[in-house]
Amino acid sequence: MSKYLEISISRGRFKKIREWNRRRNYYFKAVKLNIKIYIAKLIWDKRRKSVFDIKSIKTVLLLRNEGTIGDVVVSTPLVKCLYESGYTVDLLLTKSSSVAMKYNPYVRHVYEAGDCNNEVFLKKFSHTVAESTIRTLNENNYDLVVDLCLFDTPVHRMMLFRDINAKFVIGFNKWSCINHYSKSISFENGKEHVTKAISLVAHNMGLDFENNQTYDLHIPEAIVREVRKYLNSWEDKLKVVINVFTGSPERNFSREQLSQTIEMLNEKLDNIIIIILDHRKELSMPLPNNVEINPFNSLHHVMELIRKVDLVISPDTSIVHISAAWKKPLISVYKNISDNNDLWAPGYKEASQIIVNKRKISDVKNVPELILNEASKRGVFENGLA
What we know:
Helices cover 36% and strands 17% of the residues. By secondary structure, it is an alpha/beta fold.
């Protein structure tokens, strides 16, 4: 996996002061969060920790009620592994991410929590699961809840666990004094890929995960036919999907970067069709004749497009992990965030990861050039050179 790092160095006599201020702010934020977690523990934690007994587990609820579509995609190998090992599997997801599991045959039920930002998810005492959903989850009498959140323990977790009332709960890097967690799995955030965390859950349940690490996405045949019909008219062309927008404006490509990337691709190739993903309908700019905006509205149409094209170009977002499901040639662009670059990397040899050290990807002018260099190095365009 190739990485390019454009380094920007903060200068000036106040550099050290700014660094100390940042560290102080992070420290006090962590202290405030820990105080809230301890208060939540006093109010909602169990009196005693349950002794984890794998033999008594038949029903499993996976928690991703903070997650995006990418979080759900990377969890799919565990879902399949649990199902094939004889477990009944349910999921608690956000409303916006639950669509990713709409056609998955290995899930009994998908329940929805309200969407929320990280601030609300981590720091609020109350969760975003409706009372009617909580009653259903409680009545399901789960043997095991798997908390797949890899970072800080959300303040609301103790309340949620009390409401669900499962026999056991597994989590990552949890305080030993929180009795709701029957087992805490050690995981090095920022140093290991997210699939390692998923495999650790399977390992702690005594499951064979070696042959179940591929992301597992399911697309209805009707959608497969629609996308095939759409792409048929360009059967002899090299097909490229470019994703422009993410859930965070700081990770988006700029319109200038998109325009330059398209121009450079067209200079390099004479047999290319480019499909732009613009799910929010935000893009308004003139486009060459060989460039189209994705005409489909559903996530599963996008999945099938990615499955069928020759190259995907995307900033750090769910499209990266959808591409990984089929090991598609991918050029991805990430901001330089130490606890993200390895954890959420594409994670397969057909993908390139460009890392830029700017607050916004759109501030790095040579992103189009870096993308084309990676594509050329990987020989993606060898059969389509002008």
